[in-house]
Task: inverse folding
């Protein structure tokens, strides 16, 4: 049974930083493309960042380029999303996704003063 468990969300002021983590189990993590998506209230879920199985290739939504960094630790079966220079429009539930098929339960990120 595949489980993806996100952590690290919370309330942060504009300009602040957060690091999200996603711990995977039951998944062939080392050969899996991993992604972070987000969904804001009233909006569709959107891709934030994706990382290849080796970590050698990444891609980002235009809205987060230069501010967010996706990374992974294949020894720990964990993928991360480092978020910096956060803006109120980054407020959303952030979801970890494995192989574009398996989903975590989501973690809330709220950017507000």
Result:
């Amino acid at each position: 049974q595949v489980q993806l468990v996100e952590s690290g969300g919370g309330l942060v002021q504009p300009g602040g930083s957060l690091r999200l983590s996603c711990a995977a189990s039951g998944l062939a993590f080392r050969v899996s493309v991993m992604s972070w998506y987000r969904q804001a209230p009233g909006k569709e879920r959107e891709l934030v960042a994706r990382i290849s199985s080796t970590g050698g290739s990444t891609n980002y939504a235009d809205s987060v380029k230069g501010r967010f960094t996706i990374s992974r630790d294949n020894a720990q079966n964990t993928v991360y999303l480092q978020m910096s220079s956060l803006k109120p429009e980054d407020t959303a539930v952030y979801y970890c996704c494995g192989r574009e098929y398996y989903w975590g339960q989501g973690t809330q990120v709220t950017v507000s003063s």
